User: Fold these one by one.
Assistant:
Number 1:
Amino acid sequence: MLSPRTLDPAVIPLEGTLDIAARPELEAVLELAESRSRVTLDLGQVDFMDASALGCLIHLYNRMPRGPNLPEPAIRLVGVRPIVMRLLRLAGFDEIFDLCATDPMIAAPGLGRAPRFHGATPWVEHAPAEPHSVAS
């Protein structure tokens, strides 16, 4: 079970199946990041994602702070497995979010944008916590 109070909102590791059944818990976890302008979601342990999870990601992006003196909101999805990467690209999420695959073949020509994120970035303050399983 997730305990949202223990998560670092800058790096949010997730695991398991992100579908309609997991949506309420996923929303609660992502709510922690709404006040930040930059967030990393570690999807390395996510084996399935459906449209309800995509909706949660868009909701997070739309709720992030914006303003003349604020940086443009940025969400990085790291450790993305091929099956999840395919869904994200088909949905056009590679135009909105930074995507980083776990499989170098994902960056093959004709498959969309190549992974651009390797290692820590200056705006991630803490190392990722242990992966959290969203209710199944």
Number 2:
Amino acid sequence: MFTTLIVTVAQPLLGLRGTVKAAITSLIILFIGCALVFLHLTKTGRVYFLDFKIYAIYLPSITNSITISVDYLSSAFMFLVVAIGLAATVYSRVYLYGDPQTPDFIVKLLWFVFSMLLLVISKNIITLYLS
């Protein structure tokens, strides 16, 4: 509800349509979510781990694991990455107004923000390679 209010207010100012509207809306939701995670982790001091085991089909004895960890420091960096990504997206939308390649650029910028988020929360070399 809060993000729809922000997008409704920002739409006449920025001329948001289609892909750009979805990108900015998702970054606003990520920004609020990262802020809430950061506040939750500062109050509780917990660390959350998510571990995926990947088994080879032909060699079941070989396993790899993808580990994702969210703690106080990584949540602070997630908040920072999303804030900078949101500012860059809004600025580039205004700066590139009228350019037909703007939605493609915004999508590439959004993919970069997501890869940086994965880079921040990854804890092993396989996840770093995937990001």
Number 3:
Amino acid sequence: MPEKVLVVDDMPVNVKLLADLLAVKGYAVVTAASGAEALEKVAKEEPGLVLLDVMMPGMSGYDVCRKLRENPATSMLPIIMVTALDPAQERVKGIEAGADDFLTKPINQPELLARVKSLLRIKLLHDELADWNRTLAQRVEQQLAQLDRLERPLPPLVVPRRHHLEGKAELLEDRPPLGRRRREHERRLHAALRATQISSAGQRRAHSTGAKS
């Protein structure tokens, strides 16, 4: 899908010139003739880059740039400001307003295309990084939720008691810790094994005595 560029200028000749240059290189171009229309087109069309004329009646290019930077959804949208005024003074104003780059009229075609391509590449990298950060944040939340589930206390164990003839059960709320229960289990196994060994040894001695007699 081709990258979309919004061209904003109150002069139709300038709009057509920029739109034709970009369209030849495969970009999808949308246009606006005023600052207010530019803000509407940004919200509706979601362009990847804005070519913004500085001097326009009503809302200037600087005002449009500030509005876009104030909006979290467009705070990172690449903006190239275009002017026929003194480039040194206008560049400072453009940077203060939040512009990413600056072009002076008459437009140098290779410079225009190079700057557009460069800023779109930077935006692509930024979008990929933002997607990765969102994915990483989701994974962290999932891991934290899993740890929270593992750390929750186990419910009380319900076991039947032999002396409850009617099949009732009671809660054993004071169960010994797992480590103590394990040691007790091992102790009983060793005792049973030892008893088995003693019994076997006694049987062997009895069998040996009977054979001798």
Number 4:
Amino acid sequence: MADDGVEALAGAFLGYEPDEDPAPGAHGHHGEPGTSTSVREMDHRGHHVRIETTYRITIDGQPLQGHVEVLPSGAVHYHRFPQYAPQSALDVVKTVIDTIWEKPAVPDELGDEPGPEPHGDHGDHGHEGHHR
């Protein structure tokens, strides 16, 4: 059933308990369009571990807008899909293409990132503030 997947996602989200709190500032960096870097740090058996993961994502040569990061669990999170965190960046990109890639931009009144730019060159049409 479709509800089983939702129940599993909700259970995983509500039941997640990291081994340790993430280090301050471990959220990541925003670089050039289509590039996201996540930094995860932990201490394990007296050793300090730092993992930096950088994604440079384009679809049809256009950079993916928004931040992609690797969570402490290893799942991949895209800020525009706050409750979705699959085990693969490829799954994130497939979902972007299937849901928002060719849709008109919608302003995010609560966030600080603009909506996705529609695919293709359709001129300005008075849509101020969109980024490619």
